[in-house]
Amino acid sequence: QVQLAESGGGLVQAGGSLRLSCVASGRTFNNLAMGWFRQAPGKEREFVAVVSWNGGSTLYADSVKGRFTISRDESKNAVSLQMNSLNPSDTAVYYCGAAFPGGPITRHYRDYTRYEYWGQGAQVTVSS
To answer: Which helix (H) or strand (E) holds 73?
Structure first.
């Protein structure tokens, strides 16, 4: 079992930045690929980014490439999502997910059904 807990959501103006964090406990963190997904009201859960078990490989959705950065800190069992140049279309509940195996990262990690464990979600609201 893996428990995930997100933090760092909030309200920000368009053009601003936020940093989300997700702390994992339970199963060995460095065996897992860690991903971020988001879900806006009335829409399906959407892939945002994923990082491999060792941080050596990442994959981003086209909509966030160049604006968002995913990283992991093994010492804290945590994965972060730095979000810059936010716009109202980024408004959603952001979920942290854990998948096994931890890599190599392929296009299949874009599929939320690939992930076994999820956090409770963090609301991100971007005002225009």
So the answer is: strand 68-73
Phi/psi at 27 (5° precision): -60, 150
Q: What letter does residue 16 receive in the DSSP assignment?
A: -
Query: In this model, does residue 29 exceed pLDDT 90?
Result: no
How far is residue 66's CA from residue 8's CA, in Å, rounded to a whole number?
20
Number of neighbouring beta carbons within 10 Å of residue 28: 12
Query: Hey, how many other C-beta atoms are within 10 angstroms of the C-beta on 124?
Result: 21
Bridge-partner residues for 73, per DSSP?
78
Instruction: Round to whole Å and give the CA distance between 13 and 114.
Output: 33
Amino acid, single-letter form, for residue 128? S
Nearest residue to 14 (alpha-carbon basis) of 80, 84, 81: 84
Strand order in the sheet with 18-26: 2-7, 18-26, 78-83, 68-73
pLDDT tens sequence across 81-127: 999 999 999 999 999 999 999 989 999 999 999 999 999 999 999 99
pLDDT at site 28: 79
